[in-house]
DNA sequence: CATTGTTGCATAACAGCGATATCTATTAAC
DNA sequence: GTTAATAGATATCGCTGTTATGCAACAATG
């Protein structure tokens, strides 16, 4: 009873290599052989550390959610919770644009790559909503939002921004209305749909635009 | 100079076989060999008809948008354009739930499967927005929506519903708030964000729920 | 009807993939 | 130091998309 321990640094190193290959050379560059070549080892390392390619992808999904959460938590609380909420939306989009391939794996990899997320993975993804839900709660208690359920409001924010970002990354937005214009309109619309009145929402969204340095990590 | 012509029925037959394999056995069942086996032919048929696997996938994307458009055009115009718009949103979701794998390929396949949509394909996808834009125009001229641009409004509808459906198919919606509840809230919120007042929006969305037989093809 | 040019499609092969069995060698515990 | 257990290398299997080759079938021509 005395196992051989592997270098604890190789596992995150493999995830880094995989993420870099994915970002630089696209999804089809994610092969055990290329990863092994980059890591100066054999294809077996992927199996000993992650149990297979899907295990590595799962780890990358966790990494992706981790980056997203980090970006979201960089939004500071201010006296204007609606502006904070708008900045959360911008942060969500920034993260997706900064890690497009990783983002695609996070939300589209399960149904395409033949691997399925565990319930634990999904739970991890849902915790992302925590920051948004807290901010929604502050919007609710401030009276800016119509009385309702914070998590439901957070859901609406999440799904709307997620859809916008997904279509933007896919190149589906119609040219005259570029993504930035859609984002501004979407953010204002979301705040109004949650109960804020139009002038206040417009002003808060504009104010959040001046705080983008908070989320440009 | 006298070429041999192939059976013009085999090409759509191959697309049908591919769509069936995708729907019944998942994305990893989409292989040239399995398709050839189902069609009682060789793997070369895929190359002579589509120039490769990516060409077949592209054709499936077109098929997917065709089904979506068919479902959207099944929404009849009524005197309540806001209810029509809400029903368009329901139709969009119905189509996605009826063809989940196809839907995943339509919007997530480009960045994952190593194949890229041409600008023509994207243009075809954007035409989907036509129905929504027309309905948005009717909502605008009726005075129910705040004066603005119909296409921009259509964008907001599309992105929001698309995001909701994507997260629903991915299993990311938090249990106590099931997808149906999110849809109702999302639809009402969208109409309000476009300018309709809350009671009218609630009533129109509820009225659209009674018309789901229009879109259950 | 025969010829001929062109093409659809089958066969076989190639490069690459994920995964696995086997083996070696390293390492921690006793 | 001995020993047990695991990390990792090598080779292999079955699968994938793709392509070169060759044959057979069809349309246009005479």
Automatic annotation (TrEMBL), chains A, B:
Residues 31-50 bind DNA. InterPro entries: Homeodomain-like_sf, HTH-type_TetR-like_transc_reg, HTH_TetR, MT1864/Rv1816-like_C, Tet_transcr_reg_TetR-rel_C_sf. Residues 8-68 form the HTH tetR-type domain. Transmembrane segments: none annotated. Keywords: DNA-binding, Transcription, Transcription regulation. PROSITE patterns: HTH_TETR_2 (PS50977). GO terms for molecular function: DNA-binding transcription factor activity; transcription cis-regulatory region binding. It holds the Pfam family TetR_N. The keyword Lyase does not apply. PANTHER family: HTH-TYPE TRANSCRIPTIONAL REGULATOR RUTR, POSSIBLE TRANSCRIPTIONAL REGULATORY PROTEIN (PROBABLY TETR-FAMILY). This is TetR family transcriptional regulator. It comes from Acrocarpospora corrugata. The lineage of its organism: Bacteria, Bacillati, Actinomycetota, Actinomycetes, Streptosporangiales.
